[in-house]
Amino acid sequence: MAFYRKNLGGTHQAVRVALGLAAAVAAFIHLSGITAWLAATGGLGFALTGVFGYCPMCAVAGIGRRNS
User: What pTM does this model have?
Assistant: First the structure.
């Protein structure tokens, strides 16, 4: 049993994973130094929200699945 309620749909999850990984790779290709690491960390964080299907900011904003 999960300790959280998923608030992202399947397509939304897949898009987040793809864009997050693409941002992380692009950060290392186009940036250097600490800036690349910070941008890559942000991209990986975005991808992880897709992997787990839960976005804390979406939960705060009330965006997500409607589970009755």
Answer: 0.82
